[in-house]
Design brief:
By secondary structure, this protein is an all-alpha fold. It folds into 2 domains: 49 residues; 239 residues, MetI-like fold. The chain has a two-stranded antiparallel sheet. A hairpin with a 2-residue loop joins β1 and β2. The protein is globular and about 75 Å long.
Length: 331
């Protein structure tokens, strides 16, 4: 072995050790510490649950909740099998009628079985997304307008500050009455319960987006405004080329906050109004009062939390994609 090759090995060893230390540190932060935290939480949950006794039985521990996840999945599979058999029978019956009488027009009936836990998850996700998008369509232009105009901001800010802290439980009765009065149709495109939940979510998730968008626009750097003046950009080009790119971080911060608020509001609205969704599932299980109700409610709570986390992470990734600053924090 030559002296030069031995020297290269000796100098490369510290670099390898440094890289391994960095890799282990990142691995510990991303995987090891979260796993330890989850295991400690499960242990404390299991120990605490054994000492809590309610009128419906012992408080469910992790094992009981896991069993209910399995039970809810099998209920969903069974219900889907029933639906498939229903449509197969209907199709065979209509085919036989058409064969006997070619002028017969087949009647398509919808399966009216119960909504499973997973069906209600999809219902809640669709409702919260629709309500959030409606809020964004209203809030972002309004926030840009108030950020660009101090007079408009002074006029609208008191209204925002008054309605921002209003609970969804206060909005829901008003929304229900208004929808019942105005949304009158013999063949409605969507159900009134969906419209009630959507509008309640929209009303409660507007404000974080309006406020953060307005702050992001109003705090635009003076140099950027000067560039726009030098180039004599018209207002729509000023907003497109200067305002929006610089305000994206604050706009998406407001959107992340609003999505979290929208998800919490929806569950409360579904519980109160008994609209289809996860909130209704929780309330129905509470009213049911069976020995499995607490475990099923706890399973729903975990799912609600996980969905909220996924929605937040998804919005964060969308922010990174849309923003020029790719170093967005993961808080």
């Amino acid at each position: 072995m030559s002296i030069s090759s031995l020297s290269n090995k000796l100098t490369s060893a510290p670099s390898t050790n440094v890289n391994f230390a960095k890799y282990f540190h990142s691995l510990r932060k991303v995987i090891l510490l979260p796993v330890i935290g989850i295991l400690v939480f499960l242990m404390l949950w299991s120990m605490t649950a054994k000492n809590i006794h309610t009128s419906l039985g012992d408080f469910p521990g992790p094992n009981a909740v896991f069993q209910q996840f399995n039970s809810l999945y099998h209920e969903h599979v069974t219900e889907r099998e029933k639906a498939d058999k229903f449509y197969d029978r209907q199709e065979a019956r209509n085919a036989a009628r058409v064969e006997a009488d070619p002028s017969y027009e087949p009647k398509i009936r919808k399966y009216t079985g119960k909504e499973t836990f997973f069906d209600q998850i999809i219902t809640s996700l669709f409702t919260v997304t629709a309500g959030f998008l409606l809020a964004a369509i209203i809030a972002i232009p309004l926030g840009i307008a108030t950020g660009l105009s101090k007079n408009l901001n002074a006029a609208i800010n008191p209204i925002i500050q008054v309605f921002k802290p209003v609970s969804p439980l206060a909005w829901l009765p008003l929304v229900t009455m208004v929808v019942s009065a105005l949304y009158v149709s013999d063949d409605p495109l969507v159900s009134k319960s969906f419209v009630n939940s959507l509008l309640t979510v929209t009303l409660c998730s507007l404000w974080p987006m309006v406020i953060n968008t307005s702050i992001g626009v109003s705090s635009l750097d003076d140099d950027l405004n000067n560039v726009s003046r030098v180039l004599r950009l018209p207002m729509h080009k000023h907003i497109q080329k200067i305002v929006l790119p610089a305000s994206v971080p604050m706009i998406f911060t407001g959107m992340r906050l609003s999505f979290g608020v929208a998800w919490m509001v929806l569950i409360a609205a579904e519980m109160l109004a008994q609209n289809p969704g996860l909130g209704k599932f929780v309330w129905d299980e509470f009213q049911n009062g069976s020995s499995d109700s607490l475990a099923r409610i706890m399973a729903a709570v975990i799912v609600i939390g996980l969905i909220g986390f996924v929605l937040d992470r998804g919005m964060l990734q969308l922010q990174r994609f849309a923003s020029w600053d790719k170093s967005t924090t993961t808080v």
